[in-house]
Design goal:
By secondary structure, this protein is of the alpha/beta class. It has 4 domains: 130 residues, no CATH class; 64 residues, no CATH class; 61 residues, no CATH class; 203 residues, Uracil-DNA glycosylase-like domain (Uracil-DNA Glycosylase, subunit E), CATH 3.40.470.10. It has 18 helices and 12 strands. The chain has a 5-stranded mixed sheet with strand order 1-2-3-4-5, with helices on one face. Bound molecules: iron/sulfur cluster. Iron/sulfur cluster (SF4) binds next to α11 and α14.
Length: 483
């Protein structure tokens, strides 16, 4: 629709057809894949050219003179995807006035046309945000897709702006076919193309199991500390509730919030309590029974550090991953292979180092991706430990440092750096820097975690990150020889 408008409005403006000589016609229905905003033949340039007489002062402009700013294009795109009556008339009038009256018209925010368009743009931005925030997908069987499934969501929207919102889902869930249904239009992603079709006025039946899944997800992610009821109502207007399975548990969660808040405040300060020893075997045994944070419930093994008790270098990673959790040992699996490759390049023996993690249990969440070797049968997706979990686990790391008394600590990844520096750290801020004023060790170095190297967007970046890790470990080795 918007593209049609652009083409036709530009042709009209070129021919200097004034706004009051044009009647814009809305389409009767949205057609498959092409959302024409004009009924067939109702408005073409041929017809427009006959719309004489022209305004006395009008003149036909050369093509290059009907050009508009990106700001107007953004505004026009939002207005075009609104449900506002007379939107095409408003847009053409703005285009006309920008072309023939004042090129800087959009700066006059008190102008009635500009103000009306900006108000609509604001509404559309909010609507797009709502779609991003509240769309809930249900998995259904679909034999036409390679995986035999499709993710379907329905949402009651107030404006036909799904085309502005749907590309976000394509970027996020691009590896899965999905369909988003709204009363105005539907978006379909088939892993190659995003297409649009006519709207669906009512919600399709939704499976109860999916509702339950969302409720439990919402319950686990609901944070009573951030409870602001008026904001919730503003963010989640009642008209969206039809699409939200969790809506019927919100009341209960609000009632439970004060009690949960008290519990959370207590948990924020919970710290593991290691025994008074520097014997690593005893510490490991004690940590196996640790329940200081909730991660012990979901982790298969507590993964303590391992390596030489006399090592001068201590390498600290983030937390165990899927393989480490199953094997009960740090730096295994694909990330462990990257680490071993770097050590091998440097001629360093892993057994001669002490290798551990800042957090000792694996934090993960379910995905639907099958993985027969996983205890759940599904791939477990790594989740970053929270500040409270890192805080709870820190005493185990302190004890390990106390037992090893390393000359050099190498933090691999931001979580490890945060544990040692006591503040949120960006790897780029510490890359290549030797820090000598921390209480934990005379020398502290920071580099990338091997799993971040595996996730690098391209081979060049991965190579550079691995090179940095190699340099940092080589420097750690040199420094350890001086002590
Ligand atoms: S992650 Fe650390 S603090 Fe939490 S239960 Fe495991 S060992 Fe204890």
């Amino acid at each position: 629709g918007f593209l049609d408008f652009r083409t036709k409005a530009r042709a009209l403006a070129l021919k200097a057809i004034p706004p009051d000589e044009i009647i814009w016609v809305e389409p009767k229905a949205v057609t498959e894949t092409t959302l024409s905003m004009f009924s067939s033949g109702a408005f073409d340039t041929g017809g427009a050219s006959k719309a004489t007489p022209l305004n006395k002062n009008s003149k036909v402009l050369p093509v290059s003179q009907v050009s508009v700013s990106p700001e107007f294009l953004r505004l026009a795109e939002a207005v075009a995807h609104s449900n506002a009556a007379g939107k095409w008339t408003l847009l053409y009038r703005l285009l006309w006035r920008l072309t023939y009256e004042n090129k800087r018209l959009l700066e006059v925010i008190t102008d009635d046309d500009v103000k009306a368009a900006l108000d609509i743009q604001k509404k559309i931005k909010r609507e797009v945000h709502k779609i991003h925030a509240f769309v809930r997908f249900e998995r259904v069987e679909d034999t036409s897709t390679p995986s035999g499934e499709r993710y379907v969501a329905w949402m009651k929207t107030d404006h036909p702006c799904l085309q502005l919102a749907a590309p976000f889902f394509m970027r996020r869930f691009g590896d899965r076919p999905f369909t988003i249904l709204t009363p105005f239009e539907c978006a379909h992603w088939d892993l190659e193309k995003l297409t649009y079709s006519e709207g669906s006025p009512v919600a399709p039946d939704r499976g109860e199991s999916v509702d339950e899944l969302w409720k439990s997800y919402y319950k686990s992610s609901f944070n009573p500390a951030r409870l602001n009821i008026s904001m919730m109502k503003k963010e989640m207007p009642v008209r969206y509730w039809d699409a939200l399975p969790e809506a019927d548990i919100i009341r209960d969660l609000i009632l439970e919030a004060p009690e949960r808040l008290k519990k959370m405040a207590k948990n924020q300060n919970v710290r593991a309590e290691p025994p008074e020893t520097t014997d690593l075997a005893e510490l490991k045994k004690a940590a196996t029974g640790c329940t200081a944070c909730p991660l012990y419930k979901t982790g298969t093994h507590m993964v303590f550090g391992e390596g030489s008790k006399t090592s001068r270098i201590m390498v600290i990673g983030e937390q165990p991953g899927d393989t480490e959790d199953l094997e009960g040992k740090p730096f295994r699996g694909p990330a462990g292979k990257v680490f071993d490759r770097v050590l091998n390049d440097l001629g360093l023996d892993r057994e001669a180092l002490y290798v551990t993690n800042a957090v000792k249990h694996f934090k993960w969440k379910h995905t639907d991706i099958p993985n027969p070797s996983s205890p759940t049968g599904k791939t477990r997706l790594h989740q970053r430990a929270s500040g409270a979990e890192m805080h709870a686990c820190k005493p185990w790391l302190e004890k390990e440092i106390d037992a090893i008394k390393p000359d050099v600590i190498v933090c691999l990844g931001a979580t490890a750096a945060q544990a040692i520096f006591g503040k949120v750290c960006k790897i780029s801020d510490y890359k290549g820097k030797l820090v000598t004023d921390l209480p934990w060790a005379p020398n502290v170095l920071v580099s990338y975690h091997p799993s971040a190297i595996l996730r690098a967007p391209d081979k060049n970046e991965a190579r550079e990150m691995e090179e940095n890790m190699r340099n940092v470990l080589a420097l750690a080795h040199e420094l350890s020889k001086k002590h």
